[in-house]
Amino acid sequence: IWVPAYTHTHPGVRITTAGTGSGTGISEATSGAVQIGASDAYLSDAQMLKTPGMLNIPLAISGQHINSNLPGVTGLKLSGPVLAKIYSQSTYWDDPDIARLNPGVKLPHEKIIPIHRSDGSGDTFIFTQYLSFSTPSWKDGPGFGTNVSWPAVPEAIGAKGNDGMVSALEQNKYSIAYVGISWLAQATKAGLGEALLQNRDGNFVLPTADTIKAAADALFDKTPKDERISLIFAPGAQSYPIINYEYVIVKQKQPDADTAKAIKDFLTWGLDPNNGGAASYLDKVHFQPLPASIVKLSQDQINSIGS
Q: Does pTM top 0.85 for this prediction?
């Protein structure tokens, strides 16, 4: 969302982008194949030990929605334990656990087709964090990560990228999938249903600007200096349970001063609330701006980049 505007005002700068999953963004940034990797996920402690000197810098706040191809059903309510069940074993839409959350809703006796990412994905990272934080059996089983060993569900489908997830949903009646919020417009255009998720306080909420902000507000003061933190399952009556920082993954030490300066200038522009951090950019992909306290932490990290 930033590159065209930045290169237009900085004609001497050339930036090449590629749309990939967070897994690729992380691996190529840590290997040095690219200077900047974008990711919904921060590097784990193990990854930081394996590739020291990496920075995880938030530039915005994002979220994830749960979409379904369930004709005739609107306002579907789901919880972490129910989603863990759907992604762990063959389940019918009228399963008692789902029906209990949706009294009075006529649910079909059709097997659910759970769709998951087949590529390394930050969306998988935050979705499986939600399952892990809300469901002990999932935490002790598949756990969370950009890639996980998905339980063997005969009906399950793997799809690459958010575009693949939306396409698979469109093509498979009675399916369900987790989709990055930047793809909200495509999912809505496709006529897909959007579920209300049960949050930590037990309420069912949709991912809106207000519910994402409520969740983020509850955890801003917990953000450490290196900014690696999960924003999943935040407390609060109106908090949406699956949100995240949108990170850029960058090496703190660059090969030369010119490269370091170019990266610092671009990231500073992207972070600036009057430039890349402005609503005119973030609204295009349904991202939310960072508060001043997190902008400062991110700017401190950007300022530490050198050669």
A: yes
